Structure formats: C-alpha cells, structure tokens
Hints:
The complex is a heterodimer.
Chain A: H1 2-18, E1 37-42, H2 48-58, E2 65-70, H3 74-87, E3 94-98, H4 99-107, H5 115-121, H6 129-134, E4 145-157, H7 175-189, E5 194-195, H8 207-220, H9 230-243, H10 257-261, E6 267-271, H11 276-282, E7 286-289, E8 298-308, H12 316-326, H13 329-339, E9 342-343, H14 357-371, E10 375-379, H15 388-404, H16 409-427
Parallel strand pairs in A: 1-2, 1-3, 5-6, 8-10
Antiparallel strand pairs in A: 3-8, 4-6, 4-7, 4-8, 4-9
Chain B: H1 2-23, H2 34-41, H3 45-75, H4 81-89, H5 96-107, H6 112-119, H7 135-163, H8 167-175, H9 180-208, H10 212-218, H11 225-235, H12 239-263, H13 268-272
Amino acid sequence: xxxxxxxxxxxVAILTFACGGTPPAPATAGAQKNVGQVEFxxxxxxxAKEVQDMNSKVLAGFNGTVDxxxxxxxxxxxxxxxxxxxxxxxxxxVLALQHGDFTTLAAADALExxxxxxxxxxxxxxxxxxxxxxGKFGSQKQYYIPWLQxxxxxxxxxxxxxxxxxxxxxxxxxxxxxxxWGQAIEKARGEKLIGLPVAPGTKGGLMxxxxxxxxxxxYTGQTLVGFKSPDAVQMWQMLKRLWSVTNAQxxxxxxxxxxxxxxxxxxxxDHQARFADALNKxxxxxxxxxxxxxxxxxxxxxxxxGLAIPKGAPNRAGAEALIDYLTQAKQQAAAGSSLSFFxxxxxxxxxxxxxxxxxxxxxxxxxxxxxNKKSVITLLPVGLGLKGDEFTLTYQDAFTRIILRNEDIxxxxxxxxxxxxxxxTTAKAACWPPDPPSSGPCQIK
Amino acid sequence: xxxxxxxxxxxxxxxxxxxxxxxxxSAAGDFTLDNVQRLFRDTDFxxxxxxxxxxxxxxxxxxxxxxxxxxxxxxxxxxGRDFFLYVWSFPLAISDLAAGLVWLAVFTxxxxxxSILQSLHLIQHPIGFLNYNNLAGLxxxxxxxxxxxxxxxxxxxxxxxxQSIPAELGEAAEIMxxxxxxxxxxxxxxxxxxxxxxxLILRTTAxxxxxxxxxxxxxxxxxxxxxxxESWVYEARNYQMGAVYAVLLLLLSTLTTLIYLxxxxxxxAVFQR
Lengths: 445, 273
C-alpha cells in the first residue's frame, strides 16, 4: 500500500517538526572566518518582497557575501546548471530547488555528494528521515540537504462562513460541498466569489498543481496514470460545476492574495506562500482551511525544497558554510517567514515575534492533511527536468479546452494524455507517488 | 553601403534564416514538417489568427482616419494647435507594456471604470470587461489601448507627409473655388499616398506583432500570434514551435507589405512632372 506508506512517512516527517522538541544547541558561535562571495541560485523567492526579506532577514547575518538570485521556474535553473556542468564551468555555489527539479541534475551527476556535510550538520540538528531519503534519489549519495517545505491550502473570507451549507464542516469539505457553498453565496450576493489561480503560463497561477495534486488524486487516487480514466472524466465534470460558481476573472489570477484582499473573491485555493500578503495585512478577516476531498480521498501536495552544491562550484567552502547557516534553527524560522514555507529541522519555534502568526495557522492545516486517514499525498512531478514547463502547460491546455472552450472532455483528455506521455517518455521519468512505481517511463493508462 | 549590408546580414538575415531552419527541424535536428502540422492543431491557433486579424482590421483603419484628422488639425491655423500637437505626441514616449498596464487599471474588475460606474449607481456589481468570455470587452480594451498608444506615431508620419506637399497646390485649389473637404480629397490625399504607404506598412507589420498590450490587458484571454510565439519559446521552451509561429508572422508581414506596395503604387510620372 504505497499510498498509505507515503502518508505515514510524511506524517512522521511533518509531525516531528510541528510538535517541536528541545531547541537545538546554538550553532558554532564566535569569530568565524569570512567565507567570501557565495552565488546562491533559488527557484523560491519570486516576488521582489521575498528577495528583499531573504537578503535583509535571512542572509544578512551570514559571515560572507551572498548573491541571492531567483528565477521564475525551476526548469530555468536546471537548464542553467546543466549547461554550465556540460561546459565544465560552474558559476553557482548553492542551489535551492524543489525536490522534483533536482532529479535531472542528480541523473546528470551535476551535483556534489553532500554526505560528509550532512554528517557534520546532524551533530547539532535533526532532519526528517523521509526528506533526507528524498534527497538521495535511491542512491547512496546525498544530492541535496532539505531546507524548507510547503503545501497548498484554502483561505476563506470570514464573511463567507454564514453561507456554508448546512451539515458541512469547513475543515472537512468535499468538492461537492464547496460547489454548493459557491452557489449559496451567488444566490445571496449575486456574485461568484470562489477564486482559482488560472492565469496562464509557467509564471502564472498554479492551477496545474490543483489538478495534479488535489483534483486528480481526490477523484482518481492517482496523479498521472489515471489522466484520461472514467474517474478523471467525473472529476472534470465536477470542475465544470465548480467553474460555474467561480469568478470569471480567475483567468487573470496568478497569486490569490490580491483578489482576496480587494474582495473580488471570498474563497480561494493556492500555494501557502501566495496567500502571505493577504494574511499578513488582513489576517483577522480570513481563516485558513484544508482543500476539499473527493470520492478517492483528500488529495494534497507536498513541496520539499532542498539545498545543493553544483559540481565545480567556485566557492565550495563558502557554499558549505551557507548551507550550514541556512539550516540553523534561527535561519529556518527566518527563511520560513520570508518565503512563507515551513522549516524542516526539528524544534524550530514558529511563535516568535519575528514569525508571522499565519504561518502557524497554515502549519495547523498542513498537520490536518497529514492526520486525515483518507489523505492521498502527491509529490511534485519528479524527473521531468527541462520538460517540466511543457508538462505544466499541458495541464493548462486541458483546463482551457475543457473548462473555458467547453470542448468534449474525453477528446481533450486523449489528446493531452498523448502529449504528456511523450514528455514523460522523452524525459524517461518513472512514476512518482501516488502513482504505483514503474520500471521505465511512467505510462498513462 | 557595405556596413549597412553587413548589419542587415548579421542582425536580420542570419536570425531569419536560423528561424526558418529551426521551424522545419525536430528538436534532434532532423528536417521535418511535424512542427507545421502541430501548428494547425495547436490549441487556440485558430483563435490567435482570428484575433490578430480582428484587431488589425479595427485598429488600422481607425488609427489612420483619426491620425489624418489630427494631422490636419495640427497643421491648420486653429488656435491652440501647438497644445494639441504636444498632447497627441505624448504616447510616443510611453512603452507599450506600460500603456497596457495603465489601461488595465481602467478596465479591471475593481478598476477606475467600474468604480466610477458604481459610484454613479449605474451598476450594482462590477462588470467583467476583461473576462475571458467577454470577447467584445477584451477587443474594445485592446483596441483603445493600442490605438491610444500608437496613433501618435501615425500622426507624425502623416504630418510630415502633409508638410511636404507644396502649399501653392492647396492655395491654387482654393482660388479655383475648392472647399476644405474638396481640397483634402483631391489635393492632400492623393499626394499623401506615398506617405500613407510607408505608414501603413510600418503600422500593419507592427500590428501583426501586437504583444505587450494584449498580454497586459487580457493574459491569455485574447490569444494572438505574437503571444503564442512568446509562450512557446519562453514558457514551454519549445523553440521549434516558437519558430513556426515566428515564420508565419514573417510570411504574413511580407505578404501585406507586397500588397501595400502594389495597391498604393504611385506612378513614377507623378514625381517627374
């Protein structure tokens, strides 16, 4: 039962940090040598505010100069590191990517083995075993060291709660109940106030993640394998009904924090970090709830971000010092607050005055995902490398054709399944959870 | 001559040939027609063609008619013509993306237009001018923004054309009893033909490539050929498909230029007289 195993493993991973523990011993303080210039390339930290916070709140205390750069998609970073690796000359010292983006680099042997560094770090801090094993990609080498983690959830304007249909629990909704809720609001207010991040493009909204990690697993129990199955057709029919009570401006929403703040929507789904601004400024108007569940359970997605050192990094010692620095409790909380992620190491306090209060509210929802017996955890697509962006766009294509252009569901799913299959086959990507493991490229049934 | 030729070859010829080659190659580098076939099957390809031509068909005649009027007014002895000239030249200095964003602030759900309408109690709930399913609203917004942004360029071109027409011709016509409209139709307009030809070629080629304004105002709500090109290259990073779209744009631009050159040809004799 791989599904169950993943849930349990993740439960352990998240609960260990959520429950806290003894605070770790303060990191080697005192006079440390300045480690010089460290080039830090990250797929996290896109809005300018996040870059600012990273520089002023997280990296400022580092004994060296960090050049923090952030690009919109991980595939662009993968591209850069890979071409530098092939040219035999790296300009990057530390690389922060999501788990799935590392696969291609690990397969190309473009990353240093960080096992010795990890052993050194483990003397005074504890990483969740599950996240560490992700970073090995089934090998003996530690390709990345876990840095941060996150999930996707829903934020609701408290004004919407009065319209919640009788008999539904806001913390345990089904997709059908969400639709009824939207209908009730439209009936009472004359407006469609559910919002989804459907802005197109790889720099747009994260609707593709909603499909891959929430709608599909909740209706098919799988993420990719059942892409065109009868269960999937049922899911798309539900999505059409959901769309009928969704604000049509959703096609322009990339980050749901903005329409929530100006009242264009009352109920929104998005990545936890993309709510930060709304929760920061108007936290008392909103409540944070888990995503709904479907016939096959509560589908949810988990994002793990790791730190790696590309082979031939110009400042290897500086890179190791930076990873050491970023995985200390204080910087874990600071980076978590700056990027709206959760820390990965044990015993990080999420209640200090520097930590925004919404982070613990979001963390409580993340624990609900883990604790739910019916939850189906999905990892971000693994091993697509350079094909990752086209993979994302194919999900957007399906959404555009089925929902916006009203084309026949099965026809579109067959078309797009062929495109996805070609991408997965070209990238030689094996199935990733919750799909059953495959030998060779994952096959859509 | 030589530096110009080298410049053209390096910065225009080479990329153009390269794009042509990429358009007919697979990712592995074999020659193929797959990309072209995929172009015709591509989601929103038909919509992108339709929208590009729709915008072109509205924006170009609108702009040239307005620009002619503006140029004539700015040239005339009307009081305050300098003021008009300055105001009308203003958008020349504004980037197309910025123009798109300015108009977005007007038309968006909680933008200026909806706020004004609501405060006047003309509407109860904001109107979704830019909703993906509101074609009229999307086209109207893009046409307004695009016309506002680029009309000053057309006006400057037309004005320089009017200035090059000898004043005696107009005066002679006036003495012969021609009214203002007659002078415009029979003297100004025919002598403006070469200028209009240049202006039309410049503007139509640019209209095929309309991009930033559409992107800023509509996202993917109103796909056009240039936004599809950009999306294939920079989003999907599929350079072959991007190249096919680019080649299609090149073909359309070349074709229109040839049509204009032919249709608005001024006989050599006119200049020799």
